[in-house]
Amino acid sequence: MTTRTATARYSGFGKEGKGAISTQSGVLTDQFYGFNTRFEDEPGTNPEELIAAAHAGCFTMALSFALARAGYSEGTLETKAAVKLEQKDGGFVITRSDLTLEASVPGIDADAFADLAEEAKKNCPVSKLLNAEVSLAHKLN
């Protein structure tokens, strides 16, 4: 079992609040996020962008391993994930993540590749998470 962590800090509330996200690895350290980075075009990150990065990375790695198991050792995969946030029922919902893949795998049959890609899409852990039940444990200080 592997556990990875990230932290988010938010100072102030609502549109005027400012946040910072950091990851266990240090790849992100106090990366700015807030209303303007999420709903407008201010520089910084946002949760949907991070989910898109995770989904693109997870799917691409899953497909890479599937191709290796099928005997392929050369090629390239490049995936874009577009995560859509919509307002619904008085709140916001991530309604979809669209994966767009460009691949080069010498010698593979188009149908075999399509099957492997579909399996990777269905079985990568982030794809599964996007349809998971979410629970909350909290402590108020």
Q: Which helices and strands occur, and which strands form pairs?
A:
Elements: E1 6-11, E2 18-23, E3 31-34, H1 35-39, H2 47-69, E4 76-88, E5 91-104, H3 110-123, H4 125-129
Antiparallel strand pairs: 1-2, 2-3, 4-5
Helix pairs in contact: 2-3
Can you walk through the features of this model?
By secondary structure, the protein is of the alpha+beta class. It has two domains: about 1-45, no CATH class; about 45-130, 2-Layer Sandwich (GMP Synthetase, Chain A, domain 3), CATH 3.30.300. It has helices spanning about 35-40, 45-70, 110-125, 125-130; strands at about 5-10, 20-25, 30-35, 75-90, 90-105. The strands form two sheets. A three-stranded antiparallel β-sheet has the order 1-2-3. Strands 4-5 form a two-stranded antiparallel sheet. A hairpin with a 2-residue loop joins strand 4 and strand 5 (about 90-105). The longest helix has 23 residues, at about 45-70. The protein is elongated. It starts with 5 loop residues before the first strand and ends in a 12-residue tail after the last helix. The model has no long low-confidence stretch (mean pLDDT about 90).
Brief synopsis:
It is built from 4 helices and 5 strands; from the N terminus they run βββααββαα. The protein has helices spanning 35-39, 47-69, 110-123, 125-129; strands at 6-11, 18-23, 31-34, 76-88, 91-104.
